[in-house]
Every structure is written in C-alpha cells, then in structure tokens.
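Aim 2, interim progress. The first record below pairs a target sequence with its structure tokens.
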Amino acid sequence: MPFSDLPPGPDAWPAPESRPLFTSPHLEVAQVRQRTPARPDGADWTVVHRKNACVIAAMTAAGEFLIVRQERIPIRASLWEFPAGQVDAPGPPRETVLRETALRELAEESGYRLAPGGELIALGHFFSSVGFSDECGHLFLARPVEPAPGGCHQDEGEAITGCRTLSAQELGEWIARGEIRDANTLAAYARLCALGLIAPGKPVAA
C-alpha cells in the first residue's frame, strides 16, 4: 500500500501541499502545509508518512494470547508484543489486503496460523503517533490459532527472540507492571476490552 493510505472518513480534511524531504522503502518525511477548520490559511508541519500496519491478537484454543519478544533498535531494548507488520501489497480490495497481511505476519513472527474453522475478526484501526506521523494500525483478533508447519519465518530486518502465551489476566498484569508497553499491543488490548471480547481474568466465550 502507498504511504498515507488513511482510512476514509466523513470529516477528512483536503489533501495538503506536500514536499518530500526524505524517502525510503519504509517511510517518507515530508514538509506539508495543511488547511484545517481552525487554520484556514494553513499550518506548516513536518510529517512522517508510514504504510498501514496490521496488529494481531492471536488466541489459542485454551484462551491464551500469543506474544513475541522483538528487538526494537530505536528504544535500544527488546519488547514483548502482539505480532504486527506493515502492509506491502498494493491495490484493492482493501479489506482483503489487510486480512492477508494479518495472517502473514502472524505466521512469520510467531510460527502460528489460524486453525481450520477459526475466525479473523477486524477490530478497527488506531493512530500510533498523531503528533508527527500518519501511521495507521489495523487491529485483528485471530482465534483459535495453532502451530504452523515449519515454524516462524521472520523478515531480514526483524530479530524475534522469543514467543510465549499469556492468559487474559496475565496480559493485563504485564501491561499494569509496564512489561508490555508498545502502542500496538496496548491499543489492541484496550479495543478487546472495550468490545467485550476479553474480560479481567478470562476471555469471553466465542
């Protein structure tokens, strides 16, 4: 998908004037002038454009969630997270591309796949860093999942050093203690709770 492929919305502002400052396969830094309701003459802003991403809350038949431990160079630490990854395939239909990406990233990072008869539930989207980036993450619940033949196949730029399961209660406890602190996992957990898909201590029955 191209950079800045934002979900459509009824309150979207007009496209800004934009001048690229730096471009790579993963992001683009641009100087934009954006007209807004409060600033009709426009405001100058430096924006980091990112591809869409998919975040997968994967639940086993036992009701436990998969998390992976991944090295994150910008913060100089390894974090426990839900599997996630950027959307690379271009073109419509949009929902098909997002679902295919979610299942691909689940398999690549955790070595698990959606079990026969399982369901992949779209949970909506969120914006991870709205002060400087248009990065949009699409949230999914995959249940139940099972080990995939051949295990995980992470990308060259990834360093995943572990994979484990947590109950819904343990997941909440890890978040409360600050052991899980990436925006993707926190957003997915909040959406799961808000939708009633998990409750303190146990997942809601499918």
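The second target in this work package is listed in the same format:
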Amino acid sequence: MMNADGSNRRSPVAARRGFTLIELLLVLVILLALAGIIIPNLAGRSKQANTTAARVEFENIQTALRMFEIDCGRYPTLSEGLNALVEQPSDVQDEDWKGPYLERGVPKDPWGNEYVYKQPGRNNTRGYDLSCNGPDGEEGGGDDIDNWTRE
C-alpha cells in the first residue's frame, strides 16, 4: 500500500497489529506468579470444605435419627441401618412412620464412604454410634467424626 507521500513504508499503527514475544512472555510470567500465590491458599480449603460438609451432613443424619426415634419409639436397628430413615421398616406402623426423614436418601460422606451406624452403640450404649471415617476412609487416625467424642 502506498502512503500519501508515495513511499511504500507501513505506518506505525499498521505495523503494530500483534503482541511481541516479550510481551506474551511477560503476561505469562505475571499469570504464573499470581497462580503461585493463589493456588496454595486454595489447596487447603478443599479438605476444610469436605470436613465441614461431613459435619453438616452428620448433624442432619442425627436430627433424622432423633425424629425417627420420636415417631417410632426406637432408633433403627442395626439390620435396618440408616436406610430406615428413607424407607419404612416392615415392623413400624404406617401411622407412626412420618418419613422419609432424609429427603435425598442416605448420603455418603464427602470422600465417598458410607456413614457408620451401630445400634445399640458400643460407645453410646443407650442409643447409637454414628461415625464418619474422615478423609483417609479408615477408623482412627484422628480425622474421624463421631457422636461420642467432643472436640
């Protein structure tokens, strides 16, 4: 394209249509620095969020167990398990069972494991033991959530 003065040179605006390699590398370095600051701060949050979610779900199950006990006069048996909070046990009268007590079914913990229910409880002999084995999925280890210890 010819300029007004008859020369064949490009105008400075026309010559500068893209980013230079140095500009792209500078943006990449800035983004990596930001990621280096932000990602470590968020990494610990997922474990904390899962633990909080497990505690909330744990409390929901305990509330459902209390409601079942008020309505039916007993806690679900070991063989009925937590499923009795969703489906009416065969030996419970229709007028007594006001369920389902857990609307979305019996949940798994945030790590994909079943909540552990025992009735009668080994630790709560007058009631039930309810526990979640925590992130490691194994009983013990200091990361369990249960209804017989206080933090």
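Strands lie at 116-118, 129-132, 145-146. This observation will shape the mutagenesis plan for the next reporting period.
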